[in-house]
Amino acid sequence: MRKRMSLLLVMMLLSFSVLAACGGSKTAEPATTGETVTEPAKPADETTPQPEPAKEATPAGSEGLYEAADMSLNPAPAANRKDTLIVGMTSPKGVFNPLYGETTYDKYVFDVIFDYFLQVKGDGTYENSLADSIDVSPDGLKYTFHLKPGVKYTDGSPVTVKDYAFALKVLHDASYDGPIDILSFKVKGGQDYHDGKAKDISGIKIIDDNTIEIEVTEPTAYTRDTLGTVPFIPEAYYGKGYKQGDLEYIKALHDKPLGSGPYILKSFTPGQEADLEANPNYFKGAPKIKNLIYKATTDETKLAMLQSGEIDMDHVTVNQDNVDELQGMGFLDVNIFPTNGYGYVAFNFKEKKFQDQKVRQALVYGLNRKEIVEGVYGKFADVINIPQSKVSWAYTNEGIEPYDFNMDTAKKLLDDAGWKVGADGIREKDGEKFKINFSATADNPVVDALLPIMTKNYKELGIDIAAETLDFNAIMDKKDKGDFDMFFAAWGLTPDPDSTVYITKGAQNDVGYSNKTVDEWSDKGKKELNFDKRKEDYKALYQELNKDLPAIFMYQRRDMWAINGRVNGLEITPYKDFIYSLYTAELE
Amino acid sequence: MRQYMIRRLLQIIPTLIGISIIVFAISAMVPGDYITAQNNPNMSKEKAAQLRQIYGLDKPVVERYFVWAGNMLKGNLGDSLSHKQPVTKVMNNYVWNSFIIAFCTLVLSWLIAVFAGVFSAKFQYSLFDKIVTLLIFICMSLPSFFIGLLLIKLFALEFKMFPVGGMTTAGINAHGWAHIVDVAKHMFLPTLVLTMLSTGSLTRYFRTSMLEVIRQDYIRTARAKGLKERTVIFKHALRNALLPAITLLGFELPALFGGAIILERVFVWPGIGQVYLESINMRDYPFMLGFTIFIAVLTLLGNLLSDVLYGVADPRIRLK
Amino acid sequence: MSLASAPLNTNVEVPKQKPDSPWRIAYRRFTRNRLALIGLFVLIMMFLICFIGPLFSPYNLYDYNLADKNQSPNARYWLGTDKFGRDILLRMMLAGRISLLVGVVATTIAVVIGATLGALSGFYKKSVDTITMRITDIIMALPTLPILIILGAVLSDLKVDPSHRIYFLMLIIGLLQWPYLSRLIRGQILTLREQEFMQATEALGLSDHRKIFRHLLPNTIPIIIVWATLSVAGAIITESALSFLGLGVVQPTPSWGNMISAANSLIDFRKRPWIWIPPGICILITVVAINLIGDALRDALDPKMKK
Predict the structure, then answer these.
(1) CB-CB: which of C83, C244, C266 is closest to A442?
(2) Does residue C67 form part of some domain?
(3) Do A38 and B42 touch (CB under 8 A)?
(4) Is there a domain that residue C11 lies in?
């Protein structure tokens, strides 16, 4: 009995951990305990200039880097650790292969072991890493990558573009079950190789050991970057047993990775820690921190572990309590930045009532979003009105309606739409009562505030609302079956604004939303190669989305890293995880 | 007796088949699958279909059941979808960590519960009895993670006697004796909390059974014969008060290997409980099914064990 | 040692001077027990306060006031407010309605099924025992969480009103818990049925029904009571966990369990004790009261206690 109940109790506990688990590439916050690594991210166009962070007023203390106040408070275990950095995080699964890893935490490990042609920069654009230079044909169909000469894997063997071609081959293999959707890259001949009709991928041309040309059948603004973030895996090591259609042998190597990156995996104890050692021959220069340890932590105790010095840094849920606590310790740097994602309430567009723009607008005006967001996150989140991060280059607030809470406007809009208050106080139209069955994933703190406030607001509007909380997968299931009215969830954002969430029949548009104007601007934006024009396309797109409201856009919250003050030189932004600057970081 | 054992062991087979069918049906009915659970925004419909095909999720449920059951008979539980490793290997990675804590807790809590229960009963309504009873109820009324957090605050942060969490100190790579000491230090707090929690209910059961037995005539007779009080209590009374304890002991067998999720979270203990919970949330069917069946077998064995022990404790009980 | 003849003077059947029924004796014994009366009084008060109290509160369930969030107890909010500025006192009373009901109903269901089936299988043994115990084996081996997820999804698909799902929840907790009690009872009955007083009932030619429900089960009451007190507290805490699966109560409706779990960090634990202490104390009082009543009930029903 005891055990049974404790299993259930954990459901509650999990709710607190999920948020903290939302690393940069978390896709939808209310998801499950595991996390998804997005594919090689879709980055911005190569001509992208520095992003222009929105110049909106942010409440003091809610964003930015706050340095440690008093390093003399640093606990002895941390202060005495001269050549070792201990990073706290949820335990990885042990899938240390960039082609297969699915969680952010596995990524934290394998991305310091493997290298790519390109590497992400703080603003979400990409810079050359292993690539010396990249040539793109004017029509955007041919990409020639030139590899930096003289780079070696940590076993001493040379890095060549053959290894890159090998990775592409593995990804195209029919038995490949990792998270990367390579066929969407549209490499020429890729489909044939996947189907077993060809022995090689015709679009891959190895010119010499340091040069490779990739041909695609469909260019997009971000093809160069997606191709540039396919990893180099040594064919001599991973390809020993490779036969087309059989990748079983690669799985045995998941916990024995071999790459050319700044660190080498020494040992991994499941559920406990991964120990890494600096690669003295790293091509960008040997890392200054000799030992890197990832230690498993949980939400319940990460603050205590930071305080005792058992870990040097960890990702902590942002709220006033935690920020006060961390800053109160005195020896921690606190880095708060906007989460790359947003919460929203979806409508079911198969239902007639939600097809009416006026009804959707009324439901936004009539919902006190500000109170919900403030109630949960205080100053550490903003109400949003377009589905884009405020730090993205594509963000705009020109011509955007803020939909401030206004009961009267909401009531008027519903009246105009033909939903009149009936005798029982519930609105009706053509004999149909206005009833909403609202589902929310319970493992998200926003739901605590959303349900009471929404219930109260909508009752006042004359809507019969029944709210429930459900298992995340149960909601996704309802969504797939189209058996819902409204639900609450969250989306993760990629650095590139291209997305299929709101385009007609888009891969992620599973609520049946369709709007020709949105489709047009999305398509233009996806294919436009000129940056300034592209920016205009997205501005028009967001203005339309803001007016038409495919969903109730709720909030963008913050992420936070707490880092022991003796660690210097880590660059962390919404787009760039700490792992990409580890090789330059130092310990005091 | 031997015949009974053999028959019971044979009965396990149909019971297990029944359980495997129900469990598999449950896993098939649970909304969502490993692909939806990942909620990957870049997952196209084609890619999702490909993955379902590779994992065999596109086949009819009945066929999937027989494939799974057939493999299981050969000792192959399949590969965990999220760990990309054989289920048995993943289980082996975590289950022993859970076991050592659960085992230490079991020994400690039974020892304490026997004494606390017996003395509570012997001195019913005394101050000792009242304090024990109240403490037990307080532990029951508060979530266990509070107790865990409180101990961490006291022992790890204030007195710095024990580490906050984990199983070993990061990066020391100790071997032999040093390793054992390191693990023992990390084990102390979680074991303490678990013991506090499970001792409570056990004590109540022991106290009650003892109260029953102590009032019986043969105890009075034993005392009248001039036997030492200690002999009376621990030899004559306790043995007869053991029956409910035997049933509870049977329940402990699956619990030994099942992990204690909350404590694993609070003390970052690398146990199996969290891994199992995650497999349910992620719809990692091979692991979820494999571990459920593993626990099911232990449950059946635990109940069998207690049935056999009844006869040992009270020879008048004859199960046929 | 097993000269034990204790329950031989099992009264009841042996006519005494007064035609007192055993229940009347038990009743008299019970009402003479001061502690038990206090327990009963407290429990009744808890029910009354929870069901009537909210009527006198100046606040109502849907009220929230972010300006007043996280206030410590004061004149306006006697027990303080939570993180949305809701009155804790009101919520505690409203929560009690749910939690008391869940605890008592779920436990009752489990006790009725568990005790009956446990007694039957212990008494008849053979095939009755085999079948019942294999059913308990199966239920105990089932993975609870996935079942609950399915149930939550099904109730949602059937569009069962969220405020009614709590009844299904009580039922399901009861249904999942009875096998544990059942095995405990069966173990007791197995040994009780071999004792001498049962031979006496045999000699008197009593019916099976009478043997089981008049003579065997009353002797297992101590165990039932321990199990039930533990189970009431367990069910109250479990309820809050199940809300997440669409089974328990939904915000803003409170329960003691979800009020306690709203305080989820060491920071709440330290800085805002008024959030978790009141519901914690309510659970504690309920459990202690039930236990006092239970103890008295056992003494009252115990044939060996003579006064």
Answers:
(1) C244
(2) no
(3) yes
(4) no
